[in-house]
Amino acid sequence: MAWMVAAICTVVVSAQTRVTPPRNKYTPEQDVQIGREAAAEVRQEYPIIDDRQIDGYLDELGRRLIAAAPADLKHPAFEYSFTPVNLKEINAFALPGGPMFVNRGMFMAASAEGEVVGVMAHELAHVLLRHGTANATKAQGFQLGALAGAIAGAVIGGGWGEAISQGSQFGLGTWLLKYSRDYEKQADLLGAQIMARAGYDPRDLARMFETIQKQANGTPPQWLSSHPNPGNRSRYIAEEASTFEIGPRPDSNGFASTKRRFDTLPPAKSMADMGREGGGSSGGGGAPAPVGRIGEAVPAPSRQYRTARGGQLFRVNVPSNWIAVSSNNSVKFVPQNGYGESRGQTVLTHGVELGVARASSRDLRQATGTLVQAFLQGNPEMRIAGESQATRLSNRTAIGTPLVGRSAVGGTERVAVYTTFLADGNLFYYLTVVPEREADAYEVAFNRVGQSIRLNDR
Ligand SMILES: [Zn+2]
Is 87 in the same domain as 195? Predict the structure, then answer.
């Protein structure tokens, strides 16, 4: 009888699930190129932690996992990196070809080293199985050059990031790093195998998923929205774990000391904080927060300027006292008390907006006409105030259209809309708003902002 049991066990041991990478029309070198560009973008937008102890510890965990990964999936071109990010959200993500980012929030939510390692092993599995470009393979008709921007846009978040990805390719970026349930299961299984070989109990991975799920409180954390639970996650991970022996536990006591090290850093930011500071995004969903109160004094535009970036799509110089407000397809830069609630509506009384809109036509005049009509429909008291004029925007042919309306702070409001085509045929617009009586004080700022816009879509 004892012999039988042993025999059955042997069979079970050999029953480790074989995980095969999905079809992919890209080369591993292209994964690396896409990931490298997107990572550079992420590093510019995200609060990266530069701390030798934390960097070193994450790197140590990462290298241990790579050493335990199947040789046939480790493409020589891959460039692995493990970067800590000072963000509160429980999130981690890896880009094609190797760059991985781990939020402080993820680290702090983990109760043991194995749990952080579990998430990293899962992310590494997505890289090794090349799931990002496998997703792109399933999509039709986009160019390689658009991918990095699309991915960076998707990662940077639901706000301006979405517009960046849409600017380069509608709807693409938002799902490139959004994995199907099939891919999730693959990453769980391969991640569990790598963990075990590296000396960690794969059940820690399942435990971390449960922690993430519990933190949800009704709103699913960011990580879960791009890594959907295929169902029975904990069970099949435990089953997979029982099919192999766990390797010798690595000698490490860095977890507790690294956690303490995090406590010495400046407080973690949230995605929403990043949005308010500009260049980042609102971090997804919901109406952007008002900037002060409509009707209260609005400070004059600062004569100092700062550079803000819309991901890969553009950069612009704005008065240093203007605050960025991101929404799905646009970002506004507004002075204090220039954007907020007025009689139940959110209004912009002072400032600028830059955005991307679908073009109704390949003809700039027609496409602009449609966009302006859409603005007018949303603002019944607004009308066209004169002829459209040919102008330049980022060294491209553009059209400027003057409008007038009624300002929420009283009196006439002056609005101007400038439009030009993006390389992919979408419309980019730059819009200025100011009460007529203050127009002179804003003219210099509006011109300077407009002239500083640099589109970077080709
Ligand atoms: Zn995943």
Answer: yes
Q: Note the pTM of the prediction, 2 decimals.
A: 0.60
| DSSP-assigned letters across all residues of 141-159 | S--HHHHHHHHHHHHH-TT
If you measure from the C-alpha of residue 221 to the centroid of ligand 1, how many angstroms do you get, rounded to a whole number? 13
Q: Tell me, in angstroms, the distance from the centre of ligand 1 to residue 369's CA.
A: 44
**DSSP assignment string, 371-395:** HHHHHHHH-TT-EE-S--EEEEETT
- In tens, the pLDDT along 287-297 reads 456 788 889 99
Write out pLDDT tens, residues 47-82: 999 999 999 999 999 999 999 999 999 999 999 999
Q: Cα separations (Å) of 436 from 68, 443, 447?
A: 67, 11, 16
- Residue 387, burial from CB neighbour count under 10 angstroms (0-12, 13-18, 19+): exposed
* Dist. CA 356 → ligand 1 center (Å): 30
Tell how far the Cα of 118 is from the centroid of ligand 1, in angstroms: 11
* Residue 253 located in a structural domain: yes
pLDDT surpasses 50 at 339? yes
CATH number at residue 427: 3.40.1000.10
Distance 319 CA to ligand 1 centre (A): 41
pLDDT band at 173 (very low <50, low <70, confident <90, very high): very low
Ligand 1 centroid from CA 64, angstroms: 20
Q: Ligand 1 mean position to 268 CA, how many Å?
A: 24
Q: Of 152-161, 182-191, 323-332, 396-405, which gets the smallest average pLDDT? A: 152-161
* Number of domains the chain contains: 2
Question: Is residue 397 in some structural domain?
Answer: yes
Query: Considering the chain, what percentage of its residues have pLDDT values greater than 90?
Result: 47
* Ligand 1: centre distance to CA 184 (Å): 5
Separation between Cα atoms, residue 172 and residue 406, nearest integer Å: 38
Report CA(115)–ligand 1 centroid distance (Å).
15
Dist. CA 140 → ligand 1 center (Å): 23
Supply the range of the domain harboring residue 36.
Answer: 2-263
The answer to whether position 279 is within a domain reads no
